[in-house]
Each structure stands twice: as structure tokens, then as C-alpha cells.
């Protein structure tokens, strides 16, 4: 491990010598992730994308990509684009990235079950803004808006996210 790794600990996520309170999946941690189980997958993951709502914030980093109303994430395990960023119109089951609430205003995309997804092994594992402290996610890791922005400004493609 290096100081540049994001490491989930009982105190929160450690990154650059700081600890950040976070929320994890309502199903806790798992080594056998399944679509819809609400659990955060254990393992060493990597940051592979940084997405943001350009209508709500300035670009957080030079490699960040804006998301718009047509941007979705496929969560249909039988779909050929399962666990991929897709665009509307889209017939298969999906999550909207452009939400009315602020949860996905800033997203660090992790490489869980990506780019070659195993059907049913889980999708849309992100680091994003929490609803409120202690409110569980559907399997993601969530932070306060200010802490997420601090992390996003320093994370780079390939930054390791270690979930034990």
C-alpha cells in the first residue's frame, strides 16, 4: 500500500494521510458480490473514470468527463453493455447518471466487474456523494460532498481503492 491508495478502514477511507468518513453498502462488505445484494465488494479496485455534472460544478480535474441527461449506466446482467456507461434512449435496465438529487454530481468510477463484466456479478460500483452521514448505499462508497471533491481533485486514473 502507498499513501496514494484509498484504503477502507473501520475509521473511514484513508487517503493522502487523512481519514474521510464514508458510507458503504447496506449489505456490508462481501467477497461474493451479486447484482442487487446491496453489498460493497472486497478487493483491490482501481479508479477508471471521473464523471461530473457540469451544470452543477466546475470540472474537478483535467481528466473528468461531463455527464448529461442522456447518460446512463447499464445494470441489466443479460445485456451486452452490462456494467457500462450507455446513453438514452436505452431499453435495458439502467441507472440514470444525471439525477435530480446530488448523489451523482461527482462520480469516481471503479473497475469492479469491468470492462469485461460477468453477468450478475454487480454493476455501478462507484464512489459518490452520500445522502447523509451513516446512510448506506447500494454497494458504493459514499462521502460528504466536500470530502469527495477533495478526493477527486487528487485521485488519478489507476488510483487503487482497497476494500478489505
Q: What labels would you give this structure?
A:
164 residues; mainly beta; 9-stranded mixed β-sheet; 3-stranded antiparallel β-sheet; 1 helix
Describe the structure.
The chain is mainly β and 164 residues long. It is built from 1 helix and 14 strands. It has one helix at 145-154; strands spanning 6-9, 12-15, 18-20, 29-30, 40-41, 43-52, 65-66, 71-74, 85-87, 94-96, 106-110, 126-129, 141-143, 160-163. Strands 1, 2, 3, 6, 7, 11, 12, 13 and 14 form a 9-stranded mixed sheet that branches. A hairpin with a 2-residue loop joins strand 1 (6-9) and strand 2. The longest helix is centred in the C-terminal third of the chain and has 10 residues, at 145-154. The chain is globular. The relative contact order is 0.28.
Note the gap between the termini: 12 Å
List low-confidence stretches: none
- Give the number of DSSP strands: 14
Please give the count of helices.
1
Structural class, from helix and strand content? mainly beta
Helix content: under 10%
As a whole number of angstroms, the C-alpha radius of gyration is 15 Å
Percent of sequence in beta strands: 25-35%
Coarse shape: globular
Roughly what is the average pLDDT, rounded to an integer? 97
H/E series: EEEEEEEEEEEEEHE
Q: Characterize the main sheet.
A: 9 strands, mixed
Amino acid at each position: 500500500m502507498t499513501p496514494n491508495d484509498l484504503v477502507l478502514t473501520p475509521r473511514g477511507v484513508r487517503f493522502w494521510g487523512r481519514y474521510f468518513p464514508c458510507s458503504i453498502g447496506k449489505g456490508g462488505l462481501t467477497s461474493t458480490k451479486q447484482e442487487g445484494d446491496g453489498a460493497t465488494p472486497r478487493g483491490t479496485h482501481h479508479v477508471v473514470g471521473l464523471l461530473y455534472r457540469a451544470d452543477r460544478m466546475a470540472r474537478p480535474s483535467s481528466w473528468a468527463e461531463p455527464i448529461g441527461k442522456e447518460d446512463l449506466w447499464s445494470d441489466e446482467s443479460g445485456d451486452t453493455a452490462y456494467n457500462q456507461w450507455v446513453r438514452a434512449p436505452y431499453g435495458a435496465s439502467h441507472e440514470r447518471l444525471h439525477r435530480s438529487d446530488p448523489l451523482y454530481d461527482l462520480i469516481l468510477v471503479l473497475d469492479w466487474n469491468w470492462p469485461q463484466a460477468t453477468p450478475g456479478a454487480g454493476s455501478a460500483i462507484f464512489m459518490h456523494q452520500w445522502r447523509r452521514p451513516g446512510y448506506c448505499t447500494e454497494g458504493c462508497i459514499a462521502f460528504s460532498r466536500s470530502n469527495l471533491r477533495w478526493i477527486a481533485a487528487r485521485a488519478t486514473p489507476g488510483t487503487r481503492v482497497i476494500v478489505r
